[in-house]
What we know:
One of its GO terms (cellular component) is nucleus. The protein is of the alpha+beta class. The protein is built from 8 helices and 4 strands; from the N terminus they run ααααβααβββαα. It has one domain: Actin, Chain A, domain 4. It has helices at about 5-10, 10-25, 30-50, 65, 75-85, 90-95, 130-135, 140-150; strands at about 70, 100-105, 110-115, 120-125.
Amino acid sequence: AGSGAGADMRTEISTAAAFVTRLLRAAGGVGEEQLRCFRECLQEAMREHYKHHWFPLVPSKGSGYRCIRINHKMDPLIGKAAGMIGLSHERLFQLLPSELTLWVDPFEVSYRIGEDGSICVLYESPQPAGKAAKQLESRTSCKEEWRIGRSSPSKSYNMMTVSS
Length: 164
């Protein structure tokens, strides 16, 4: 009964942290021990950050607060975890996508790479019975607003082609 928010968000947080860790591993140049430490530090930072901002009864509430974002600025949670293993922000920008949005919400973790990329779901779990009716009234989460607000492709986005 008294499990509190901490226990409920474990799967979502570990899914999100493992995803960012996989991106780092794929980029190469970071040792396994460092990656393990990074993942643990990131999970800890997220747990601390989300502690009072986790609402399983209204999953979209606080969505913007829990959104992890790299967009010409490094997300502070990723930056903090990377600092623990000696990775600078400059190095992170080389290793991670320059545009990354990661939504960590109760029952769903999803991400988008690039401003106009598709949203991909990493983890989804059905909500406990009886909560479904509640979710419909406040469905416009941070993510939905992006989908609605970004339906037309951005005009200033020119693809550069490089011929060899």
